[in-house]
From TrEMBL:
Residues 1-18 form the signal peptide. It comes from the Bacteria. It holds the Pfam family Rhodanese. CDD domains: RHOD. Residues 31-113 form the Rhodanese domain. The keyword Cell membrane does not apply. The keyword rRNA-binding does not apply. This is Phage shock protein E. SMART domains: RHOD.
Amino acid sequence: MRFLILLSGLLTFLSAQAEEIDQAAALATLQRADSLLIDVRSSEEFSAGALPGAIRIGHDEIAAQIASIAPDKDSPLVLYCRSGRRSGLAKQSLENLGYRQVINAGAYDDLLPLLEAQE
């Protein structure tokens, strides 16, 4: 029984991790004037440091709040968090709502030097 519980937990964790991170596509999309950069971390994490131009919407709030900043479901959306897990979950939520151009950019700490190198 304990094995089944552990296996179930592992499968849940892996499915949350399965959302692919694509930093190259994220960087290319951020060059577009119509793209939106969304930080799905907590407000505390956002206050400690965020990418320039990022809008904060927690991953658990994104489905309820996205229409206020991106009513067009063809808007290019780039999401990031601490590791890529929450941005992957948020990406799935947005795609379930019909958003078609959503990119999981992964981790804040990985993106910051890449964006600085582009400047």
